[in-house]
Amino acid sequence: MSKFLVIMGPKIGDVIATTPLLRNIKKYKPSAEVYVYITTHYGDGIKVLKELGYVDKILYVDESSKISIFKFVLEYRNKFDYIVDTFKSTNKKALFIKLLNARKFSVGFNTCSLCLFYDKLVKYKNEKIVLAESKLLSKIFGIRLRKLDLSLEFPEKLSKKNLLVQSVLGKFKFRITIFVGQKIRSLSDEKWQRLIDLLREKYPHSGIFLIGSNDCMWANIKNFDYDFRKKLSFEESVFLLKKTDLFITSNGGPMWIAAALGTKTIAIHGPSLFAWEPETDNVLNLRPYKYPDCQPCEGRCYLPEYRQFECLNSINLNNIISLIDKFILNLKRQNYPYN
Fold this sequence. Notes:
Blueprint: E1 3-8, H1 12-28, E2 33-38, H2 44-51, E3 57-59, H3 66-76, E4 82-85, H4 91-100, E5 105-109, E6 120-122, H5 129-141, H6 160-169, E7 175-179, H7 189-202, E8 207-211, E9 226-227, H8 234-243, E10 246-250, H9 253-261, E11 265-268, E12 283-286, E13 302-303, E14 308-309, H10 310-313, H11 317-333
Parallel strand pairs: 1-2, 1-4, 2-3, 4-5, 5-6, 7-8, 7-10, 8-9, 10-11, 11-12
Antiparallel strand pairs: 13-14
Helix pairs in contact: 1-2, 1-5, 1-9, 6-8, 7-11, 8-9
């Protein structure tokens, strides 16, 4: 029986973006045991992994402790046939994987000076992350998949909060949810407010809802129907996004959740790597490059005094409304009422 160790990042986006790779390992080697090494033992990424039927065990080690790393290497050295390092390899990870010593081979991307420690290397050329991971699969199984399925099924639990969400959303024929995300990746408060005002003017009978966490802005945002910020757990946020007709978001975890759920999404990307855009039919990625050499985004036009970027400040909100109109039209053809 083959044993795989898949190393991934701790955030929800890291986990969801890697699920197609995990699913295909089980597809092409059904008898394989798949272990996932993740750099934290808490968080929403762990919750997703625990729900996947194709992950046999989740491993964690405190990377701040050299003793913990040493004990982990002693316990698992020579235990895995294949070790797969997902997305940007680092010298620290390359050395760690070399010490674990895969029985058949290790594979990772050529993004660090110690990557020669891998038995097989994949050239990374700023592709979107899911496409890059299809290259990893080609190294493992000798096949190349043009497109990987990102969809996930999350169990639906009717908690008291979910009943509240269902009650609030049920008052509207068309439901728009908005997530801001980290300040340096997001529009300014003023632009989000103007966008909400335009949405309210264009679709007066739609419900507008806000979600977000402690590091989001939204100090003085008004003119929405319900504020779910800091009120929903991961499971409850999933429930809300399932019931949402249109999701407008900056780059962040909820964007990946919506992509996996199949929710119609407009993702407004600020300063973030081109790779971290979901390549799915239900997500329209909007990246307003200011200059040709911004691809991939290097944050060259960063304005620290405003914590904003010229690319985000240059967005024409009427263009976003036009894009939403196209989405609405498509939804209307699918018999979604919106006014």
